[in-house]
User: What shape does this take?
Amino acid sequence: MAFEFIPDSQQPVPEMEPPKERIGKFSIFLLSSFGLLLLILLSWGTLRDAAHAALARQNAKEAQEAIESKDWKRAYDALVLARTRAPEDVEVITTMVEFLKVTGADPGGLAQQIRLLEQKRVLTAEEELLLGRSLIASGKTKDAREIYEKLPVKESVEKPGMELLSSILHAEGHTKEAEEIATRAAAQGEDSPEVHLKSTLDDLQSPFGEVRNHAVRQLWQIAELSTEPALEAIGRLASSRSLTLPEAHRLLDLVQKHPLKTLPTRLQVTSALMRLQPDQRTNLADAEIQRFETDKNGKREEIAYWLMSEHLNDRVFSLIPKDLAIQSRELYPILVQALAQAERWEELKEVLKLPRPPVPKSLRDLAMAEVQSHLQPDMREARQLLQGTVVNAIQEGNVATLRTAAALAEKLDLADIAGLAYKEAGFRASALNAPEEAMQNLQKSAEMALRIKDTTTLLEVAGKLHELSPSSVVFSDRLTYLRLILGVEMETIDLSALTEHDAQKAGLSIKLERIPAELLLALSAYRLGDRTTMQKHLSSLQDAAALPPGPRAVAAGLLSMAGQTDRAYQIAEQIPGALLLDEERTFLKQAL
Assistant: This one.
C-alpha cells in the first residue's frame, strides 16, 4: 500500500529549544595555551635580549670582583663572555673600561670603549680625562686636544686637567711648556718625597732670594731621608756654589750612612770638597782612587768618568791603560774623551787606529773627524769623515749615530752637514714612532738650515713638524709663514685656521712663540695683491716690535707698503740683517 500524506490527519510536532553551546575546560586550556604561545613568540626577541643582558651584567659583576682582586685571567674571561652576550650594555662597557684602564694594555681599545660609552650616557669628568689620556697614548694627539678644549674651565685647571694638558704639550713637542704645567699640577697633588723634591728644585730657580733660601732648607731636610730622592738632593746641594766646607763634610757623612749610597753620589760630594779646597784637589782625587782600588765599591767606568769630568786626565790614563780600554766599550770612550781634553791629538789618533776597538766604526770615524779638525785646519778630512758617517747612518737608519754626527758637525761649524743629519734623524725617529725625539731633531735641523739660509730644508722640516703635531699652533703658524714669505704652496694655506685660543684656556697655558694671525693674514693679502685687506689686518697688529727678527722684518716691510713708514722704521731699525732669510731681508729694505 502506497504511503499517502494527509496533512490534517498528522499530529503536529511540538517546538523545541536547541541546546545551549558549552565550552569545556579542555577548550579553554587549548585557547589559553595558544594565546600564551603567541605572546611568547611576539616578545621572544625582547625576552632573549633581557635574559642575555641579565647574564652579561652578572658576568660584568664577576669581572669587576676579579679586577678588584687583580685576577686578570678571570676578569678577562668574564668580560669576553659578557661582551658576547651584550656588547653594548652600559654595565658591560663600564667594566670593560675599568679593566683596560687598570691593565693599561690597549689604550686604543680603551678610547674606543669610552667613545661607545659616550653614546649611551653622558661621560663623567674623570671619564673625559681618561679618554684624553688614552688618545695621547694611542698617538691621537689632535683628538686629545679636542677633548681638553671641551673641558669646563673648572676641570681644566685642576690637577688631572693640567696633567692632560702637560701630556698634550709634550706630545706636540713643547717640552718646556709641558714641564712647567706638570710642575704646577704636581704642586696640587699629595706630598711625597719625589713630588717634594721636584717642587723644591723648581723653587731653587725662583728670582726671589727668600724662596731660594727656603728651597735650600727643604733640600737639607730631604737629604736626611733614607730614600732615593735623598741622593739626588745630596747631589744638588753638593753642586751649589753657596755650599760651605762644613756643609760639604756633612753631605759626605750623609752619603756614607745612606742605605742606597752610590759611588757617583759620593764623587759629587768629593767634587764639592775639591772646589772648596783647591789646594787639596789632587790629594782628594788620589784618596778616592785608593778607596776604589781597596774597597771595590762601584764601577771603574764611574770613577774614570768622574776623573775625566774633573779634567784629571793624567789619572784617567793611569786608571785606564790602553790595553784595558781596548777591551771595554765603557772605558774606551772615556779614554778617548780624556785624550781629546788633553789635546793629545796624535796619541788619540793612534788609539783610534788600534785593532778591534770595542765601539762601532761610525763612532771611531766621528772621533777621528774631531782629531783631523785639529790636525788639518782646512777641515777637508773632517768634512769627508762626517759626510761618510752621515750617509752610512742614513742607509742604516741609525738615529743615535745621526744625532751624534749632527752635534759634532754643529760644534765644528759645518751647519750643512749638521742640518742634514738632524733632519734625517728626525725623519727616522718619526718612522720608528718616536714623535718627541723626531720633533727635537727636526727643530735642530731648522736651526741649522736658518743659519745657512736653506729655505728648502726649512720648508720641508716645517711641513714634517706640522704633520707630526697637527694640533700645534706654533708649527702650523711657522709652516704658513714660510709658505707665505717664499710664495710657494699657496693653495694649501688654510686661513680659517688662523684663530686665537679660548682666552680662559690660554691663561692657564704657557705663552707659545706664535706668529700673530694678523701678520699672517696681512701677508696673505699682500701675496694676493689685496692692499685694502692687508691694511685692515695690519691695523690690528699689536706689539710688532716684540716679534722675532724675521717676522718683525716682514711686519716692518708690510707697514711701510701700507703707508705707515714711521712705525715701520721704528720696528726695522734694530733688526740685524744677518739673522734674516733673503726673502725677509727684502721686506726689511722696504722699511729702511
